[in-house]
Specification:
Elements (H helix, E strand, L loop, with lengths): L6 E6 L2 E9 L7 E4 L8 E4 L4 E2 L2 H6 L25 H8 L1 E2 L4 E2 L4 H12 L40
Antiparallel strand pairs: 1-2, 1-5, 2-3, 3-4, 6-7
Helix pairs in contact: 2-3
């Protein structure tokens, strides 16, 4: 157990730096160490296995040390998608190589399959309200032609 203000040695981009412990078991079990860097004294977080008591220990550490058992393990809360998912298999079966895209006649089916597969990962869809049709009108299906207007040049000197 290290105390606040204790002199320790850390590796910083291959160089051994002498620093002082600010707080041990700070964030996620890491040790906060104040190190001299470019005329400043920033505080950096190091895993307990990367903080050494002597400069020789720091120099001789060629491999990455294992994290101490006091560091809590972070578990993955997101389930992993299988290597060959149903979406990938569907894309392979319905791919248009000439246009380099998914065939347009299978887009709706692919989208519903994608939503089912990615829903456990936290992706949700918020329904967007569709505008209600106005009664007595029919939708515009073709572009209307612009009316030609006659231009008159107004001038004081005709």
């Amino acid at each position: 157990m290290r105390t606040e203000g204790q002199t320790v040695y850390v590796l910083w981009y291959g160089k051994v730096l002498q620093g002082n412990v600010v707080k041990e078991n700070d964030m996620f079990g890491m040790t906060a160490v104040r190190i001299p860097l470019q005329g400043q004294n920033p505080t950096a977080l190091f895993t307990p296995g990367h903080v050494y008591d002597t400069p020789e220990e720091a120099e001789n550490s060629k491999s990455v040390p294992k994290i101490a058992k006091s560091v809590p393990e972070i578990e993955e809360s997101v389930p992993k998608v299988s290597e060959t998912s149903q979406c990938e298999a569907f894309k392979k079966a319905h791919w248009d190589t000439g246009r380099n895209c998914l065939r347009t006649d299978s887009l709706d089916e692919f989208y519903s399959l994608w939503k089912k597969e990615h829903a456990p990962l936290g992706y949700t869809e918020t329904p967007t309200p569709k505008p209600a049709p106005v009664s007595g009108t029919k939708p515009c299906t073709k572009a209307t032609a612009k009316k030609q207007t006659e231009t008159i040049q107004l001038s004081l000197f005709d």
